Amino acid sequence: MKAHKKEMVTAQAPGKLMLLGEHAVVYGRNCIVTAVDAPVRASVSPSDEFYFDARDLGFSQAVDVRESDFPKQVAFAAFAVKNFCERFSITAPVRIATESIVTAGRKVGLGSSASVTAATIVALSHFHSKNMSRQEMFELAFKTVLDVQKVGSGFDVAAAIYGGTLLYRRGEPAPLKCDKLGLVIGYTGIPASTVDIVRQVAESIRNQPDYYEGLFDEINRIVINGKKAIESENWQALGELMNQNQEILRKFRSPSESCGVSSEILESLIKAALDAGAYGAKLSGAGVGDCMISLAPEEKQESVADAITKAGGTVISCLANVPGARIMGEGN
Ligand code: PMV
To answer: Does ligand 1 lie within 6 Å of residue 23's CB atom?
Structure first.
């Protein structure tokens, strides 16, 4: 039977926030990540050339997907198309249009590279009627992210594809049962380069491997206890574990000798949240800038948000624990 020709398929994938375990996850330990409502959409439609449209980034142009060096605005989407077409020996060109729905998500580090990769692969698999499991889509998306940025644990790709809240170890996402997470998110105003920070930490590990192995093992223990706290909805315990995790992140010797992967601005937002009654607070992601997260009882969330704002942060209202990548619509 001749395959039914689709006109346009749109998929959407969420962003992510690291709850516990950043950096250690790059070195084989576990982390906990939650998918957040900062989605990216990718639409695939037939075309007579491979064409990429990322209007919110000012890019609209044909791209040769046989190359491996793509314009940076569309590098993840273009590599996703290249890898997908190679995997399934597809030569028919498509047009890919991508957009960040919460444009703020891109700027505050909620994971748009992984989300755009995931959305593109999910849309392509549906467009070309390829029945891929979530794990297969995750693996192709993770390979794509590594092709572009070379480093990373894939935790953000796992959140984008699977959604929800996951215990994650490199290549192995394990969904956690979690109904609500009372997070208050504060943006520092400073964009951080994950790749640079991961490289700086790697350099520092080369000088003191045993020291970091010890820190990563401690983080792993915190993550495993965090899983138990989430499953038993013991928010106070989870908050305490966030504080312990933050304490270890301060002990990294790079990028800062005095506060590791934390920074002055992250520390002041964290302190403000804790003083206002949060159970726990920590940086989320590579550190230095981007976002901090705090976990607070419902009745304290407003005062925690006010305190973060007063300390110079921007509160990001965004739901956590949202569903993973899915098809939004199809037209023909
Ligand atoms: O900076 P973010 O939010 O992309 O998080 C990076 C987390 C790291 O563990 C430092 C890197 C990784 O790929 O796991």
So the answer is: yes
